[in-house]
Amino acid sequence: MHILDILETQSSTFSFEFFPPRSEEASNTLFQTLRSLERLKPSFVSVTYGAGGASRQLTHDLVLRIQQTTPLVAVPHLTCVGHREAEIQEILERYAAAGVSNVLALGGDPPRDQPAYDRASDAFRHAVDLVRFIVRFNAQRIHADARGFGVGVAAFPEGHPSTPNRLREMDYLKAKVEAGANYICTQLFFDNRDFHDFRERCELAGIHVPIIAGIMPITTLSGMQRMAELAAGARFPARLLRQVQQHANDAVEIERIGVTWATEQCRELLESGVRGIHFYTLNRSKATLQIYAQLAPLLARAHS
Question: What confidence score (pLDDT) does residue 140 get?
Fold first, then answer.
């Protein structure tokens, strides 16, 4: 299903993100997760793309497996780093042939094993270039959906890590929307005030596409520390930090705190009319299922 149809028929979407498994055991674990979440009827699920395209084939295989063996709508990530135009063209053609209707166009990170990676040979320097290419592809090819691929882009409520100028940051985001992006999905955040402020700044900048909020519940202390690294210095409110620090040696309580915090984030976002909530699952379902169980009536009304 095309993202425009999903957004048109659902007042608030809810969706999940997964990463491609690298072993048979991990693959089986992931599909157990998918099956447990499938009954919630998410609006879509997205599949990440490794730094520099390292997991491009794994992403493609997982997307096709979801597409062919489940009723879920799969949205593959696609990044600029390490790609020539011909490679992106081939990937889009394969997805189109398989009936995939949407992609998330990202700038991407350089390969972790190549800290001095030279992007001079990359055909796409920024996500806006990739969005423009996908839009041209849509115009040139007959896709299973006459509108071609729906296109999502990323944004950072707390500020883009490589763009300290917040005014310039909005200019870059607006350029992606004007190039043809249909919706925005945000990086994770823990203070809803950051999201609401970001949404207001989008309105002021003339950005009017739907904005989906990215949520990742804390489940372990080590996971929280990884979030701070991977999410470019995610800000943890003092009240949340205080609760976690008071129970630093109690794994069960930390998980409860994280799930409760994320649940209340989602509750407030839904009550304020958010257009969607995207759960970063880390390929596990427990925390997401707990959140959904607590918000089931509210989510059901928003999802209808």
Answer: 84
Residue numbers of the domain that contains 184 = 3-303
Judged by average pLDDT, the poorest of 39-53, 124-138, 140-154, 252-266 is 140-154
DSSP string across 35-79? HHHHTT--SEEEE---GGGTTHHHHHHHHHHHHHHSSPPEEEEEE
Residues 6+ apart with CB under 8 A from 265: 190, 192, 215
How many domains are there within the chain? 1
At 76, which CATH number?
Answer: 3.20.20.220
| Mean predicted confidence (pLDDT) in 140-152 | 76
The Cβ of residue 55 has, within 10 Å, a number of other Cβ atoms equal to 20
What's the CA gap between 21 and 27, in Å, rounded? 5
Give residue-wise pLDDT tens across range 6-34: 999 999 999 999 998 888 788 888 888 88
- Measured CA to CA in angstroms, residue 172 lies from 78, 97, 128, 147, 211 at distances of 18, 32, 8, 25, 16
Give me the active site residues, please.
17
Could you give the CA distance from residue 210 to residue 183 in angstroms, rounded to a whole number?
5
Question: Strand, helix or coil at 17?
Answer: strand
Q: Is pLDDT of 118 > 70?
A: no
